[in-house]
Specification:
Blueprint (H helix, E strand, L loop, with lengths): L17 H4 L4 H31 L3 H28 L4 H21 L3 H29 L4 H28 L1 E3 L2 E3 L4 H7 L1 H14 L13 H12 L2 H31 L4 H13 L1 H15 L1 H17 L7 H11 L7 H10 L6 H16 L1 H35 L7
Antiparallel strand pairs: 1-2
Length: 420
């Protein structure tokens, strides 16, 4: 597959259409805030992992396998979530409430898990819950801001960046404790922290349920079944969309594999305390808080493809730094630079996928992207676990660099057209 004449990077029309003229920013900011809480909970599991691993004596492959199972379950959950989003637009609050409730249930089980398989079930439930947020939230924003999808997706992901940045630090301090002068606090046990995470998830679940009872921009009539399945058939045979699904899988595989075993490297090889591990993980997304919306606006103006190609190439180059940067301030600075692109490109890929689909199937489009991406990329964490056992963290870095290089080549080949 090569870039042909149907690949365009012409500037897109950024004039507001009727849905955008009639809308305020309540839905955008509300969903972005909820997305931040969702990612706070999602990122917390990663910081809990070193303590969980030590308590349950888990191997690298067991840790990788748990995240692989979570990815697979997360992928499958996108399919019904996409269908419900397109057919039950007015039930958006209930779908989002269910998503956050599942995350809370997962952490309840983590808090009581004393054997691997219960922990695996809990990880799967958390994965299903976090995944169910994507289709209704992304779909609603895509339908609401059809001419500014790049910005809307990026703004929503900025909430995720804030959650990803704050969770490692807060959970790290909660686990490690702190000493300030005469004040000394030894921190909390990982089971306690897990159960406490139920509070923000359930508070968000009920807030969404009551604040978005009649969400603006979601009152359009759902498609009839015949039209919906016809559009879905076109979607799963659309080579542009399928190529972007593969690209999302590659990006996700890099992110998951690198981050999981970075946590273990910091904790076990460098012997960092939980708060310091959390601080380093937060740096991966800190810079992205600013770069994500800027990349979204840029993709609306010059097109998705140059932004995606550039981000994938830079990701590979920045990952290669970790082959010789091993600790100290250089490691922290390298992680911050990586954060400019690693997660920030995800909403641009999502916007590009929705540019290729018919109006009314935005939920299914985003569901296909996340489901396919999870299915394709689900083997990466367990493969990274095997590599980490044999060659250590540098082996995982080589693995991630190779995947990012593959993604760069694929992004050059994928034809992308502007939204209508």
């Amino acid at each position: 597959m090569t870039a042909t004449s149907d690949a365009t990077t012409e500037p897109q029309d950024v004039a507001l259409d009727e849905p955008e003229k009639q809308s305020g920013s309540g839905l955008l900011f509300g969903l972005s805030a909820g997305h931040g809480v969702k990612h706070f909970a999602q990122g917390s599991f990663l910081i809990l992992m070193p303590d969980i691993r030590a308590a349950l004596s888990l191997s690298d492959i067991a840790v990788g396998g748990m995240f692989t199972a979570q990815q697979i379950a997360s992928g499958f959950a996108n399919i019904p979530a996409g269908f419900m989003t397109d057919f039950f637009r007015r039930q958006l609050p209930i779908i989002l409430f269910s998503a956050m409730s599942l995350v809370g249930l997962g952490y309840l089980l983590v808090g009581f898990a004393d054997w691997y398989w219960l922990l695996l079930i809990a990880a799967v439930i958390i994965g299903v819950g976090t995944s169910m947020w994507h289709a209704p939230a992304f779909g609603a924003l895509a339908a609401r801001y059809p001419k500014r999808r790049g910005f809307a997706m990026a703004a929503h992901l900025t909430g995720a960046q804030i959650g990803n940045t704050t969770a490692p630090v807060i959970v790290g301090v909660a686990l490690a404790g702190f000493t300030i002068g005469a004040l000394n606090w030894d921190g909390l046990e990982w089971r306690t922290v897990s159960i406490l995470l139920i509070i923000p998830t359930m508070a968000t679940a009920f807030a969404v349920l009551f604040l978005f009872r009649n969400p603006p921009g979601t009152d359009s009539a759902p498609p009839d079944l015949k039209s919906y399945f016809a559009a879905s058939q076109k979607l799963v045979t659309n080579y542009r969309v399928l190529s972007l699904v593969g690209l999302q899988a590659i990006r996700g595989a890099v992110h998951q594999s690198f981050q999981i075993f970075l946590v273990l490297y910091l904790s076990e090889e460098l012997d960092y305390d939980a708060w310091l591990v959390g601080l380093h993980i937060s740096l991966i997304t800190l810079a992205g808080i600013g770069s994500t919306p800027l990349m979204g606006i840029l993709s609306d103006r010059i097109g998705r493809k140059p932004v995606i190609v550039g981000a994938m190439a830079v990701t590979g180059i920045l990952l290669a730094q970790f082959l010789w940067i091993e600790y100290g301030y250089p490691l922290a600075i390298a992680l911050m630079f990586l954060g400019l692109v690693l997660f920030a490109v995800m909403p641009i890929i999502a916007a590009a996928a929705m540019d290729q689909t018919e109006k009314g199937s935005e939920g299914s489009s985003i569901a296909l992207m996340f489901a396919g991406g999870a299915a394709i990329g689900s083997t990466a964490p367990i493969a990274a676990g095997a590599i980490n056992s044999e060659w250590g963290f540098q082996g995982v870095v080589w693995f991630c660099v190779a995947i990012a290089a593959t993604g760069t080549v694929l992004s050059l080949m994928v034809p992308m057209r502007s939204s209508a």
